[in-house]
């Protein structure tokens, strides 16, 4: 069979699989083709920065709707999160390793239709039980993901490192705020990955560092060489757990300084907008402001040595 015939056969099989899954046809038909916001992201792409959305930003809607929203805002990348309802008519189907073959095919088709690439999945559980952790890596491989973000327990690190190398998928250790995460400070991440696979590193959540009273630029300097991806936030207050998100460049996290430090390090990878304040049209408007700041700063930094 020719390559063209094989491709056509695979496409037909995918469409048949999706069509046989109840409730998934309508959202794809209504949302596909929504116009993307015009963006000048050439500088960011030149720097190797892939701006995406953490789907948690759009947790008030389904994964299908979050993907469509990302496309509408001009974003090409997304990090999916565990447990998000797949589609408006399929709220009982949750994104994750247990979602099943047909919903997974529908998810892949939705991403392709909206021209949004899923790069990461998290924050997900990666336990010591290798059989359980392996299912998450198999799910990631099936979606073509490059990263998983997680907060694995110390006893799970050998398994996580083994599977990361086996599947060729990076595992980024995420930091929640002080008191709720073993990885809240950079040194804890460095201690966990010391002497282990280069595929282990940091999912650097700049907002949670700010909440914990840590300066994100200083944290990134400590983690140089181990930054896998970022959950990028800018917060209205420093050192306050309840601090609200604000558009990038207007808060206390030093958004410009963070991007300058990433350029200095030669970081290349996923930078996810994670906006946890507000919902609906409000959060979309604020995410759009973050994107505009990011693109303008990337152009500025790309033009300097």
Keywords:
two-stranded antiparallel sheet, globular, alpha/beta, eight-stranded parallel β-barrel, single chain, 10 strands, disordered N terminus, TIM Barrel, 305 residues
Strand order of the largest sheet: 1-2-5-6-7-8-9-10
Structural class: alpha/beta
CATH homologous superfamily (4th level) name? Divalent-metal-dependent TIM barrel enzymes
Query: What average pLDDT do the residues reach?
Result: 90
Strand content: 15-25%
Describe it:
This protein is of the alpha/beta class and 305 residues long. It has a single domain, classed as Divalent-metal-dependent TIM barrel enzymes (TIM Barrel), CATH 3.20.20.150. Helices cover 44% and strands 17% of the residues. It has an 8-stranded parallel β-barrel, surrounded by 5 helices. A two-stranded antiparallel ribbon has the order 3-4. A hairpin with a 2-residue loop joins strand 3 and strand 4. It is globular. The N terminus is likely disordered.
């Amino acid at each position: 069979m020719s390559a063209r015939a094989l491709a056509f056969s695979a496409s037909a099989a995918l469409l048949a699989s999706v069509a046989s899954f109840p409730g998934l046809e309508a959202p794809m038909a209504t949302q596909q083709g929504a116009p993307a916001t015009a963006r000048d992201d050439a500088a960011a792409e030149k720097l190797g920065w892939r701006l995406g959305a953490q789907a948690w930003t759009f947790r008030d809607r389904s994964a299908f709707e979050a993907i469509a929203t990302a496309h509408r805002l001009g974003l090409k990348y997304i990090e999916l999160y565990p447990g998000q309802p797949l589609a408006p008519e399929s709220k009982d189907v949750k994104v994750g390793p247990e979602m099943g073959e047909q919903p997974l095919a529908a998810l892949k088709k939705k991403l392709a239709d909206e021209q949004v690439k899923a790069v990461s999945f998290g924050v997900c559980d990666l336990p010591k039980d290798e059989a359980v952790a392996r299912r998450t890596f198999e799910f990631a491989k099936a979606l073509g993901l490059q990263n998983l973000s997680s907060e694995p327990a110390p006893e799970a690190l050998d398994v996580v490192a083994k599977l990361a190398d086996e599947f060729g998928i990076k595992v980024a250790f995420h930091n929640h705020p002080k008191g709720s995460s073993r990885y809240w400070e950079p040194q804890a991440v460095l201690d966990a990955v010391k002497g282990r696979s280069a595929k282990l590193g940091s999912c650097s959540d700049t907002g949670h560092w700010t909440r914990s009273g840590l300066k994100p630029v200083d944290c990134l300097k400590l983690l140089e060489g181990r930054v896998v991806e970022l959950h990028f936030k800018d917060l209205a207050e420093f050192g306050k757990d309840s601090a609200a998100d604000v558009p990038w460049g207007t808060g206390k996290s030093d958004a410009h300084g963070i991007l300058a430090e990433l350029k200095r390090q030669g970081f290349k990878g996923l930078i996810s907008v994670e906006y946890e304040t507000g919902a609906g049209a409000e959060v979309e408007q604020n995410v759009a402001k973050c994107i505009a700041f990011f693109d303008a700063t990337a152009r500025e930094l790309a033009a300097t040595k």
